[in-house]
Specification:
Catalyzes the reduction of 1-pyrroline-5-carboxylate (PCA) to L-proline. The protein has 276 residues and is α/β, with parallel strands linked by helices. It has two domains: 156 residues, NAD(P)-binding Rossmann-like Domain (Rossmann fold), CATH 3.40.50.720; 92 residues, ProC C-terminal domain-like (ProC C-terminal domain-like fold). Helices cover 50% and strands 14% of the residues. The protein is built from twelve helices and eight strands.
Amino acid sequence: MRRFLFVGCGNMGGAIASAAMRAIPHARITVVDPSPERAKALLPAGMAVETHPDFAKLGEARFDLGILCVKPQQFAELSPLAISVIRSGAIASIMAGVTLDALAARLGSERIARTMPNLPALVGQAMTVGVAADGLTQADRRMVATLFEAVGQFRWLSDETLIDAATAVAGSGPGYIFAFAQYMMEAAVASGMDAALADLLVRQTFRGAAELMHADPRTAEELKKAVTSKAGTTEAGLAVFEAEGALPELCLKAVAAAAQRARELSRTAAPESPRQ
């Protein structure tokens, strides 16, 4: 039996906790969130979850894994009691910008993983990456991987420096895709199509393309070529997207900008270690 402690239970924390309850046999979930009723509303009805507004009743409790799902400023405000409970086991953080060194300094533990799930965790299709501190054991690593595989795919990174690029691609990526869908819908409406039909066409086209990429071993470039007929409509559209300074260059710039912002957040989000 695994005991999981969720510190914070918003949309992402609720999605991960819900998936853990369904996918991990005999998992016991405890949630600490200042709004317990809101947290319960995000979790499956009928499943036993222990919820608390604070750590007052958990002083002697011990957990296999604590999952930090709070904002960096809330993490900085954790009480000594909270830190004592959290570091009773391994720790996984989903906080953006808080480095392994900052986590270790604040928590006084090296059994730490820094992870970055993305929004599709809400539908069980997340792409999560993680980086482990030296003190995280192989058993701890398996436990962290099992937890995040409950909401999609999980991969360990070899170096923490890669997490900014991973954040720029997978963490921010859903936003790019939603933006592209938005502009395709707007273009369809501009061509005279009814808005509801444009919405359906774009949603299903994105869904179908994503399912095909998932099921087909060909690369994205190979699939693109497979759907492109010589002198056909797709070729005409791609000529616009792939013109000089267009989509390929824009993607490079967007990922670089997001990665740079992730690095900036890492420099500003680090909380102070607890005062002795």
